[in-house]
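Hello forum,

I keep getting stuck at the same step: I have a sequence, I want structure tokens, and every attempt I make locally crashes halfway through. Rather than fight my setup again tonight, could one of you with a working pipeline run this one for me? It's a single chain of 340 residues.
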Amino acid sequence: MKRALITGGAGFIAHHLIGQILKNTDWEIITLDRLDYSGNLNRLHDLMLFFDPEVRKRVKIVHHDLKAELNPLIRMEIGQVDYVLHLAAGSHVDRSIEYPMEFVMDNVVGTCNILEFARTQNNLERFVYFSTDEVFGPAPNGIKYQENDRYNSTNPYSATKAGGEELAVAYENTYGLPIYITHTMNVFGQRQHPEKYIPMCIRRICNGEMITIHSDSTRTIPGSRHYIHAEDVSGAVLFLLNYNGTFEPTWGNAKCPKFNIVGAEELNNLELAQIIADVQGKELNYELVDFHSSRPGHDLRYALDGNKMKEMGWVPSRSVRERIIEVVNWTLENDRWITL
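Reply #2:
Ran it on my machine without issues. Output:
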């Protein structure tokens, strides 16, 4: 039986990944988490209700803060693993601007500590580092960044994710670790933190409140993203772990493969809010606000090119609009997840 270590397992994306692994494999899962602002064991509790007791036994929770190296006791609790899926990270842009060193410790030092652990594994098949579209910076209209395009970090969060990404590349080049890097953008789904855009819109529209929408300096062009459901991200990860193809080094002899996991449709944030309002049968009250100029470090548009994964045979399982409708209805039925 394969064993997978998932860092940040009580986080939003990671708990969906745990669910997909339990559903589609017989693997054992060790989730490593410090249970801070982002981690919430209630996610795992609710998730486990969908599985019988024998399946639940395949999940083990280990408490650890990756700012510290994994000591012998923690290593013994984890044991040997076949996969390391590194999702743990500080991810709040505003907080990174106010407290950049916290993000250096979480996203750079923490990544180095888990890479050092991975280096001690006897039969490691794959280490997956979860990076972000934000390492490439804002995307002008008509531009979608490919996997090996240059970095252009516009805030400490994205800079530290790029730093962790380069450490992963270095461990592939120096130590021969079997590493994949993924770039994912604007993931949504059930049990997301209520401060995030989609659950925030669901709550405010339900309560008849105003929605503030990030726009350009003219207050006429809303920010846009390629939104993707967390289950589709999880499906892409399992696809990569089971992929039997090979990858030739890219220009400059770059050996560490990178993959963009991208939603099929780009939506601007006004369109998205309108879909959420339509599902609820309510009027959308909104205001376009120039966050781009007034809040340094926030970008109007991000965009990734998903053709590489598409050519390999992976695309999202359902349309983003179907997924949004599903999440809105689920959230309204489980409204404790949007209570602040």
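Residues 236 and 322 are 18 Å apart (CA to CA). If your local run keeps crashing, start a new thread with the error log.
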